[in-house]
Design brief:
The chain has helices at residues 3-11, 16-36, 39-44, 53-73, 89-107, 129-153; strands spanning 118-121, 125-128. The protein has 165 residues and is mainly alpha-helical. The chain has one domain (14-76, 91-153): Four Helix Bundle (Hemerythrin (Met), subunit A) (Up-down Bundle), CATH 1.20.120. A two-stranded antiparallel ribbon has the order 1-2. β1 (118-121) and β2 (125-128) form a beta hairpin. α2 (16-36) packs antiparallel against α5 and α2 packs parallel to α6 (129-153). The N and C termini lie far apart (37 Å).
Length: 165
């Protein structure tokens, strides 16, 4: 193996498809956390001044689909973390599923060669395509952990954190 081939091999630790599958595994688990909440508490339960889990989910929805679409198309969008859900869990879950499809659709348009391009997500947050996507994933994990705390506080055993299928 020559040095150029070795360098190319070392640069690919994870493929874009593997990264998407990793993220979608996290999204599957977060969806199960949303589903585990009783309807009323999803929109009302708070601990220590934190937002409700529904408010956190709206943030995740405001970032994920629009963020990936923005990365794929280059068309800047404003960050919008609010939509009318009528305090119904089914509306949040429907929006979650819709966002999953948006991510899958636009992901294919990003192009492997673009993951290290510099961008400014939502016109505010500078980074690369990859660092931005990793932030989206990390932010989801962070808020999902808060959901775990809320569920335990409500006396509900949440899904295993490692089961992302």
């Amino acid at each position: 193996m020559n040095a150029t081939t070795e360098a190319k091999k070392l640069n690919e630790v994870i493929t874009p498809v593997e990264l998407l599958n990793h993220w979608q595994g996290h999204r599957n688990l977060t969806r199960r956390i949303i589903s585990a909440f009783p309807e009323k508490e999803l929109f009302t339960h708070r601990i220590g001044g934190m937002r409700t889990f529904a408010e956190m989910v709206m943030e995740l929805l405001g970032i994920a689909g629009p963020g990936i679409k923005e990365i794929a198309t280059g068309q800047q969008t404003e960050l919008n973390e609010h939509f009318d859900h009528n305090n119904q869990k089914s509306n949040l879950l429907d929006k979650w599923d819709e966002t999953t499809e948006i991510i899958n659709r636009y992901w294919q348009q990003i192009g492997k060669e673009n993951f290290h391009n510099k961008i400014k997500a939502f016109g505010q947050y500078e980074g690369t395509v990859l660092s931005t996507i990793l932030y989206y994933i990390d932010n989801e994990i962070h808020h999902r952990a808060q959901g775990y705390v809320y569920l335990r506080d409500l006396g509900i055993e949440p899904p295993a954190f490692w089961d992302r299928h």
